[in-house]
Write a structure and sequence with these properties.
The complex is a heterodimer. Chain A has helices spanning 2-31, 38-56, 60-81, 92-113, 140-162, 164-174, 176-181, 186-211, 219-233, 238-258, 263-277, and strands at residues 129-133, 136-139. Chain A is mainly α. Chain A has a single domain (2-120, 141-277), classed as ABC transporter involved in vitamin B12 uptake, BtuC. In chain A, strands 1-2 form a two-stranded antiparallel sheet. In chain A, a hairpin with a 2-residue loop joins strand 1 (129-133) and strand 2 (136-139). In chain A, helix 2 (38-56) crosses helix 9 (219-233). The termini of chain A are far apart. By secondary structure, chain B is an alpha/beta fold. Chain B is built from 10 helices and 10 strands. In chain B, the strands form 2 sheets. Chain B has a 6-stranded mixed beta sheet with strand order 6-7-8-3-9-10, sandwiched between helices. A 4-stranded antiparallel beta sheet of chain B has the order 2-1-4-5, covered by helices on one side. Chain B is globular. The chains are: A mainly alpha, B alpha/beta.
Chain lengths: 287, 234
């Protein structure tokens, strides 16, 4: 029962990783941009939520109504003003620019909010549990987080394959030059994709900040978790990304159970194992 | 002389330092079909790409409905009513046949063409509407590419090398649908290496040679000998 408990906790945290990964994979899929600042943008969203909560006196979940549109707006502007100019045949310029962005965000947050670790308080719900069986209890908060991840990924999947916007994303991803002939302005389409990615990040960032302490320096590790979940699941498959997040979460939980120092190591080993034996990921998109 | 729908005036085009077009001029009126022929590298595709907005051009080098559109971005030019069927078809591989058509029509320009009308024109696509566009035969892919451009309900349809890589019987089949497109009042510029197909469909022909117009005239008056001479530059 102890082990089952460990696995359940791992699955639930995996939802959060999947949300980190979904935003990352969306951007790479639409415009071949690897966003090194992804993790720091997650942390930025957490701080924006902190400011919203302290200024308006609302709870973390309610703060999403401000933070999600705000992050989407930041994403749109960031893409139009900066990142669109880095895109081209070469993968390196966007890598370098987003790396620089990562440094700027980390230091900017450090300057404004100091290195003190912070947390968003959601009240009694944080410690509420839902007993399933003797010795197995599921935290209400992790369950909400996992459900949110499934809903977000389901909505993204629907948006991509059922809507005109999703069609525009896929067409532009396939052939940006020809997509222009259909009346699609690449710069606008890319900016919408970044807005969507940062909206997902905003949800992930707030949920992360309720669950754990955060400070300006934790972004890069979230980026790694996101990368690992994408690669484990297989590029271009959102449900695969969810599976990748879950596998990563479970591996980490099992590692932590064996020895608290092994949590991160176990996640990385699971990732490396997939990379070694199935480099295309477990569920690559079938064309 | 009826009002010109499109007027290309002394158009120059460049790929970096290389000049591909030298002062090319061309006029097309509403409802007219113009053929542009020439050897490989004569600048035919460059001309279409410049009209469609995929290449830089002087603003007044391309006039559409009397408005200067030269050098405007491609997404702005298609909203005015110029659609390009690109060389090599260039369907979106991760979209189904129907999604390719829908993306072509996403601007919602009013006009005669709709999904149903495109399927009427190319029944082969109707049966395969939900499969991946990559699973179509070459001829069907070309039909889908033409259908995708028609979905924008253009006043002017630019067709780049429709016959490229297709069997003669398939080329004839596709060209046999052209009158139905022209009957809707759509003007067309057809770029071809296959001179006979192009001349059969067009009223006016321009022959490009090394980036310059070497010969032009109505298809009724221009002789095949003159075209051969202009084509090969002998």
């Amino acid at each position: 029962m102890d082990w089952l408990n460990t696995i359940v906790q791992g699955v639930l945290i995996g939802g959060l990783y999947a949300m980190f990964a979904a935003g990352l994979s969306l951007i790479f899929g639409v415009m071949r941009l690897v966003n090194i600042a992804h993790g720091d943008l997650i942390v930025l969203a957490a701080y924006l939520a902190l400011v919203t909560i302290e200024t308006l006196g609302v709870g973390p979940i309610a703060s999403l109504t401000i933070v999600v549109p705000l992050m989407a707006l930041i994403g749109y502007a960031l893409q139009r003003v900066l990142l669109n100019h880095t895109l081209g045949d070469d993968l390196l310029p966007p890598l370098l620019v987003t790396f620089g962005l990562s440094v700027i965000i980390q230091n900017g947050l450090l300057e404004v909010f100091t290195a003190d670790s912070r947390r968003l308080s959601a009240g009694a719900i944080e410690v509420a549990t839902w007993p399933i069986a003797n010795g197995l209890a599921v935290g209400v908060l992790p369950l909400i987080q996992f459900t949110a991840a499934v809903v977000v990924i389901g909505l993204l999947q629907m948006l991509f394959y059922r809507t005109a916007l999703g069609r525009a994303f896929r067409a532009t991803s396939d052939d940006p030059r020809v997509a222009q002939l259909m009346g699609l302005n690449n710069h606008h389409v890319f900016a919408l994709a970044m807005a969507l990615s940062l909206a997902v990040i905003a949800i992930a960032g707030v949920l992360l900040a309720i669950r754990t302490n955060f400070d300006p320096a934790i972004g890069p590790a979230r980026l790694i978790f996101g990368f690992e979940a994408v690669i484990i699941g297989g590029l271009g498959n959102l449900w695969g990304t969810l599976a990748g997040g879950i596998i990563l979460g479970v591996a980490q939980a099992i590692g932590a159970k064996l020895d608290p120092g092994w949590q991160l190591l176990a996640g990385h080993i699971a990732f490396l194992a997939v990379l070694a034996f199935r480099p295309e990921g477990l569920f690559p998109r079938i064309r | 002389m009826p009002e010109a729908l499109l007027e290309v005036r002394a158009l120059d085009a460049f790929y970096g330092d290389f000049q591909a077009l030298f002062g090319v001029s061309l006029t097309i009126t509403a409802g007219e079909v113009v053929a542009v022929v020439g050897a490989n590298g004569a600048g035919k595709s460059t001309l279409l790409n410049a009209i469609a907005g995929l290449m830089a051009a002087r603003p007044d080098a391309v006039l559409f409905d009397g408005q200067p559109i030269g050098g405007k971005p491609a997404y702005a030019i298609v909203t005015r009513g110029i659609a390009l069927v690109p060389e090599g078809r260039r369907l979106f591989p991760s979209l189904s046949v129907e999604e390719n058509l829908a993306v072509g029509g996403q601007l919602g320009r009013a006009g005669p063409w709709s999904l149903a009308r495109v399927y009427d024109l190319f029944p082969a696509l109707s049966e395969r509407r939900h499969i991946a566009s990559t699973a179509l035969s070459g001829g069907q892919q070309q039909m889908a590419a033409i259908g995708r451009a028609l979905m924008a309900n253009p006043k002017l349809l630019l067709c780049d090398e429709i016959s490229l890589g297709l069997a003669p019987i398939v080329v004839r089949d596709i060209y046999s649908r052209m009158p139905a497109i022209v009957a809707e009042g759509t003007s067309m510029i057809i770029v071809e290496q296959d001179i006979m197909q192009a001349l059969g469909a067009a009223q006016h022909v321009y022959c490009l040679q090394e980036g310059r117009v070497a010969l032009q005239g109505t298809t009724a008056t221009v002789t095949r000998e003159a075209i051969s001479a202009a084509y090969f530059g002998v």
